[in-house]
Amino acid sequence: MDYSLKIEDYLSGYLSEKELELFKNELNINSELNAEVILRKEIDDALRDKNLIELRKLLKNIPRVNARNSNGINIRNEVFRTWQIAAASLIFVLLASGLWYSFSSKTYSSDRLITKYYTAPHAVGQSRSVEFGSDDALKEAFTYYQQSDYSNALKYFSSIDNQVTAKFYSGVCYIELEEYQKATDAFEYVINDKDNLFIEQAEWYLGLIYLMNNEKDKASDQFDKISKADSFYADQAQEILRYLN
Known about the structure:
It is built from twelve helices and no strands.
């Protein structure tokens, strides 16, 4: 299992209480993960300290001379004054870098949020929809869907008119094929139906589509709506809002 994002979230303080507890439990039993976390922390610390160490070396090695040149100017004073200017400039760069590091470590790009929160849903079971067992096209569609053959799955889903299950999974297929407007249309159909088992999921994936299109204002509005509802995705929506804001 790739823990890269989890480690980054852990070191940045972005894990929820539940995620933090689970991660710490995993650290206690997974020696390789624990070693990786320690290494990443040491690298982060070293990167922050490197420039400061270099600055100290530069200041330490300022020539300690008191000789005067032919014009009677104190060389040591002039050299030191030059280094003061250079040091002040370097400190400014370091401060700016520190602010950038702090900002970048607390801000997620849309791509990183999608990687963290998007997964295609599993195929629905027969018990979830009375429509499932009555349509051979739907069965064929799910056969291809389970094989991640989204193009062929979509052909069968699209052949079924006005059926919520097919519409929802068509939306997922469109996401996988990066046809985001068609995915949006499919999920909005599900949401506007107002009487089915896929509404919460459709609202969630619609928010993720906004992120995929880098429409962060729309994404914020959508996840804010989800976070305030009695939704299965409410907690995750709140986390995304924290990253976006």
